[in-house]
Specification:
Rossmann fold; binds NADP nicotinamide-adenine-dinucleotide phosphate; two-stranded parallel ribbon; alpha/beta
Length: about 300
């Protein structure tokens, strides 16, 4: 076991049943921390139970059991959504009210470090997702809690929705549809690097009251992302551009009627905007001593894991 430098801690984890949360959970366990996890349904949190975590049933923002955070030295707060399902599941309720509940609970229980998940592009003038992510960051910043906030670009790896979609589309679609010109850029980031940064932030006392943009080693256009996946799977695929003038009205209409679509209006807006760290973007790598994994290596790892079955 690769034990924590500052000793074992008692950590409270939210979002541990999710994609990023699963990886953070395993890294916390590897480092020997004692973890209490908030879960909505203990019956579907077998992995966390197997890791030896204590499970507390509840949901945000309304149902965080009293005293749930008592005795915890650090909180890792990952809960977030990408799609709204009103009236219960809205960006406002989950991102803002949920974070407020966690911040208040942490203050009351005397938590010493709040490690917060935001998103690259969090912005008071952005989409509702981006605005509510920004406001949640502000709640954390303005609290008296020592904190670290992370703002990642798109995260890739085992269990990731975006990664799964890329692999499926390249494997099974004879022609790959690309919205617009595909020249919009992302900075895909390995979920294992994200997990390492979160765990260090919970452990290290020298990291406090900081925000870090997180991104992978390369800023890639969406077209280049597809090329890399094709190269790694050893497949040749043609792409076809679907004009934005066609996609946007359809997605907007479907979103306003709350019909299920592969992409929402918000996601479309965010996809088309630059989701890359401004400038060099190396501050986080230096702070956490992480050499981020290239997308190509993540795809290779995933396809080797499943027998290379392209
Ligand atoms: N994935 C990315 O590329 C990416 C990029 C930037 C930022 N982020 C942020 O990273 C965080 C985690 O993302 P993810 O991709 O791991 O998402 P995910 O797989 O959908 O996981 C979300 C987690 O939040 C929990 N959750 C949702 N609503 C809840 C509620 N009302 N009360 C308590 N728990 C609730 C889910 O629990 P259940 O299992 O019960 O549903 C799950 O554990 C989010 O804040 C997201 O905005 C993600």
């Amino acid at each position: 076991m690769n034990e924590a430098p500052g000793g074992r801690r008692r950590v409270f984890l939210t979002g541990g049943t999710g994609f990023v949360g699963g990886h953070v959970a395993r890294r916390l366990a590897q480092r020997g921390h004692t973890v209490r996890a908030l879960v909505r349904d203990a019956g579907s949190a077998a992995v966390l139970r197997e890791l030896g975590f204590e499970l507390v049933e509840g949901s945000l923002p309304d149902d965080l059991p009293d005293g749930a955070l008592d005795g915890c030295e650090a909180v890792v707060h990952l809960v977030g959504i990408i799609r709204e399902r009103p009236p219960q599941t809205t960006f406002e309720r989950i991102h803002i009210q949920g974070t407020r509940r966690m911040v208040e609970g942490s203050m009351k229980s005397g938590v010493g470090k709040f490690v917060h998940m935001s998103a690259l592009g969090a912005d008071p003038e952005g989409t509702t997702y981006e605005r509510t992510k920004y406001e949640a960051e502000e709640l954390v910043r303005r609290s008296e809690l020592p904190h670290v906030t992370f703002r990642p670009s798109v995260i890739v790896g085992e269990g990731g929705e975006f990664t799964g979609l890329l692999l499926r589309i390249v494997r099974y679609a004879p022609v790959i549809p690309v919205i617009g010109d595909g020249a919009y850029r992302l900075q895909p980031l390995d979920v294992k690097d994200v997990a390492e940064a979160f765990v260090q932030a919970a452990e290290r006392e020298d990291l406090t009251d900081e925000s870090f943009d997180l991104g992978g080693p390369h800023k890639l256009t969406y077209n280049r992302v597809l090329e890399i996946v094709c190269e790694e799977l050893g497949l040749k695929r043609r792409t076809v551009s679907v004009p934005l003038s066609l996609v946007r009205p359809l997605v907007d209409l479907a979103s306003s009627w709350r019909l299920p679509t592969p992409i929402t209006s918000e996601e479309l807006t965010m996809l088309l905007s630059e989701n890359v760290i401004p400038g060099e973007g190396t501050r986080w790598r230096e702070a956490f001593h992480i050499e981020p994994t290239p997308l190509r290596n993540v795809i290779r790892r995933l396809t080797e894991d499943d027998g290379g079955g392209a």
